[in-house]
TrEMBL record:
Domain of life of the organism encoding this protein: Archaea
Domain Peptidase M24: 192-405
Protease listed as a keyword: yes
Keywords: Aminopeptidase, Hydrolase, Protease
InterPro entries membership: Creatin/AminoP/Spt16_N (IPR029149), Creatinase/aminopeptidase-like (IPR036005), Creatinase_N (IPR000587), Pept_M24 (IPR000994), Peptidase_M24B (IPR050659)
Species of the source: Halogeometricum rufum
Name the UniProt record assigns to this protein: Xaa-Pro aminopeptidase
Length: 424
């Protein structure tokens, strides 16, 4: 299938707010996301949904949660579209001033995560869970929704028991299905966020192309790239850079202090770079000096494997049909790994959904897709990735795309036809 050709002037237009052209409309994006979740919640017969997962909270409220500290923030979406949000004292106080689209913000009780874990007492943990549940039940009573089914997006037996002891009809499976369905296709503003984060990643690639010289450490070059990402308004939640023998098999998601040398391949993994919360997954491989024949051949194999898959992605096809375009066990170099089945080769060749987190629906992978297919839909956004060994090193390439009616649109634009050469 041919690739989607964007309309004139469609694409990233800058990271700042202006009044003289339309860019990302954040208010519209917040409202459209909430309406999607609300419509599906009503269809599922739920009167409310308690959201504890940071990406789900952001999807419905627009709040940029810091994460990492457990359930010291949570949101309740109600059937009339109202939202009750609980947060720490400082955060809640700021949100009351800075987030006028939310008009019911309360102080949270951290029933999950680091606070109860650090308390050192089972009695304290029980108190925090009970109090957290009570804050939500009080809101259900105030909004006359106590008797209606409530979805919940966290699987925690203790919290579930705390709600059930107060007569709440919990529906965790329904909530998971509602949020997955709401988030699996993206609005145009969400797509523009992903297009923008791809552009920011390309600023990082440029820093690597200019700085990956012999004698510089991986960590120095990665630092240059990260500085560029932050400079352009991104948040850096992950990613790494490796070189030489650290590129095959790929290193343990760590940038090291290894010195880059002539003849090295340098692999940059911009995953979990965020712009307005929307996460990238975007790989490129660089050659320090002209690549060898083996390196060029490996790169061409990885690139061709990638584009063979991209050409199969279209609405109406299943993930099983698309996954068949990925390399078979021989192409996966399964013998090298000592692997017998595709499920043992996680992350080597696959495509995964992109959005407010990695990973989202769909997942296209020989490890599960043939037996558990999902239909590809217009508006899905995903990253497609492949890799290939080159003697004692390796290459990886990845594109970020959105599914359009007439083929995928490439959100990523760093040159891919040939490997980028770093002169020195």
């Amino acid at each position: 299938m041919p690739f989607h050709d964007r309309e004139f002037m469609s694409g990233t237009r800058g990271t700042m707010a202006v009044d003289w052209e339309e860019r990302i409309d954040v208010a519209r994006m917040r409202e459209e996301r909430k309406e999607r979740a609300l419509e599906r919640m009503r269809d599922a017969g739920l009167g409310s949904m308690l959201l504890v997962s940071d990406p789900n909270i952001r999807y419905v409220t627009g709040l940029a949660m810091t994460g990492g500290s457990g359930a010291d923030h949570y949101s309740l979406l109600l059937e009339d579209g109202a939202v009750v949000h609980w947060d720490t004292a400082d955060h809640a106080s700021n949100q009351r001033y800075n987030c006028p689209w939310l008009n019911d913000i309360r102080y949270a009780c951290p029933g999950l995560g680091n606070v109860p874990r650090a308390s050192g007492r089972d009695s304290a943990r029980s108190f925090l869970l009970r109090k957290m549940a009570e804050t939500v039940v009080d809101a259900l009573d105030e909004y006359d929704l106590r008797s209606e089914p409530m979805g919940i997006d966290v699987d925690h037996g203790g919290l579930h028991a705390a709600f059930e002891s107060q007569g709440v009809d919990l529906r965790p499976d329904d909530c998971a299905a509602v949020m997955a369905d709401a988030r699996k296709t993206k609005t145009e503003d969400e797509i523009e966020c992903l297009r923008q984060v791809a552009a920011v990643c390309e600023a990082g690639f440029q820093a690597i192309a200019e700085g990956a010289k012999p004698g510089r450490r991986e960590s120095e070059v990665w630092g240059d790239a990260v500085r560029e990402l932050w400079r352009h308004g991104a948040t850096v939640h992950g990613g790494y850079l490796t070189s030489g023998p650290n590129t095959w098999p790929k290193h343990q998601a760590n940038t090291t202090d290894r010195l880059i040398r002539p003849g090295d391949l340098v692999y940059a993994d911009f995953y979990n770079i965020g712009y307005l919360g929307y996460r990238s997954c975007y790989y490129r491989t660089f050659s320090v000096g002209e690549p060898t024949d083996a390196q060029t051949e490996a790169y061409e194999t990885a690139r061709d494997n990638l584009y063979d898959v991209l050409e199969e992605i279209e609405p109406g096809k299943t993930t099983a049909e698309v996954a068949a375009a990925f390399p078979d066990m021989e192409g996966e170099h399964a013998d090298w790994y000592g692997a017998d089945e595709h499920w043992q080769l996680t992350t080597n060749h696959w495509a995964h959904g992109l959005g407010l987190q990695l990973y989202e629906v769909p997942l296209i992978w020989r490890g599960i897709s043939p037996d558990h297919p999902v239909e590809i839909e217009e508006g899905m956004t995903m990253a497609v990735e492949t890799q290939e060994p080159a003697e004692r090193q390796g290459v990886r390439v990845e594109e970020m795309v959105v599914v359009r009616e007439d083929g995928v649109e490439l959100l990523s634009q760093w040159p891919v036809e040939e490997m980028t050469v770093v002169d020195h």
